[in-house]
Amino acid sequence: MKIIQTTKFVVDNSTFVSIDENRIAEFARAFEHGSTRHWRSAAPFDFSDFTDDQKLSFLFIFDAISFCYWGDPKWTITHKGKDYDGGWAMIIALGRAVRDGVPIFDSAFIAEISREDFSGILKGNVQIPLFEERLRIIREAGSVAQRLPFGSIVESANGDGVALLEIILKTFPSFRDESEYQRRTVYFEKRAQLLVSDIYNFFDGKGYGNLRRVDELTTCADYKLPQILRKLGILNYVPELAAKVDAKIEIAHGSPEEVEIRASTIQAVELIKNEAREHDLTITSAGINDHLWLATQEKFPDDKPYHRTRTVAY
């Protein structure tokens, strides 16, 4: 895939980030006695009473607007006496809208959703970052779904996960995620890959989730994965970049530092997968992604910050 090829070029020419391959081998052994879980298994919301079409619509909407949650203070939502932030808070917000009878599964409604209605769905302690961008993107999703229902989009891939990824990228401009590095285009496609993986996992590889070639998906280069890979000693930053990240100084989207962080995240997970397979362990990059992301949900006082980049990509 072009994601692997182009991110490898970045890693081969990296100035700010390096991968410790000795730590790769050490971490890969962690999968010998364990297994990976999809985030659905730990989600603070029960999807069991959703129809298949509702589950699919939920995933399209969620992955379309799930990005860039950091801020001071963080956007949070209180649910059953507990405060949630990030992706969990977004899941709760959308689930709360369904519970309250907001017709978010109606493509005509979300295509023209008002600023006030959308603000009500995302109501938390503060306004969510990039609210206007999210509003534009959810309207795009609704407009597309009026012409091409989400189910027909999935079915048009004929059970091919990689083909579905390309269809999503062509159909929804907001899902495209690429940067320039040394005059070359580097592909990440974080949210689009996550959507394909989510569809596969949500439906347990059946129905809408009956997709082959999902093992060709890469990890999703976001904030949290490089944070935990750095904690594990797999990713190392040069002192200048480490100081920026630890001081929570914003790093521009598309800058060499940010592209190297994301590319190194993808390549590190590929190395973990390949190392695990050397020991006859069957695991995918998406499975490692879910394992690592769930691990980041447990926070510790000595955790170093994740890099701050204001973007709709992740």
The residue ranges in which pLDDT falls below 50 over 5 or more consecutive positions are: none
Number of domains: 1
Would you count the extended β strands for me?
Answer: 6
Oligomer status: single chain
Number of helices: 14
Proportion in helices: 40-55%
Which term fits the overall shape? globular
| Cα-based radius of gyration, to the nearest Å | 19 Å
Amount of beta strand: 5-15%
The ordered H/E elements are HEHHEEHHHHHHEEHHEHHH
Largest sheet: 2 strands, antiparallel
Secondary-structure-based class equals: mainly alpha
Distance between the termini: 20 Å
Strands of the widest sheet, in order across it, are: 1-6
* Mean pLDDT metric: 95
Describe this structure in words.
The chain has 314 residues and is mainly alpha-helical. The protein has one domain (2-296). It contains 14 helices and 6 strands. It has helices at residues 2-12, 21-28, 52-65, 86-99, 107-111, 115-121, 131-147, 150-155, 161-171, 190-202, 224-231, 239-246, 256-278, 285-296, and strands spanning 17-19, 76-79, 82-85, 178-181, 184-187, 235-237. It has a two-stranded antiparallel sheet. Strands 2-3 form a two-stranded antiparallel sheet. β2 (76-79) and β3 (82-85) form a beta hairpin. α9 packs across α10. It is globular and about 50 Å long. The mean pLDDT is 95.
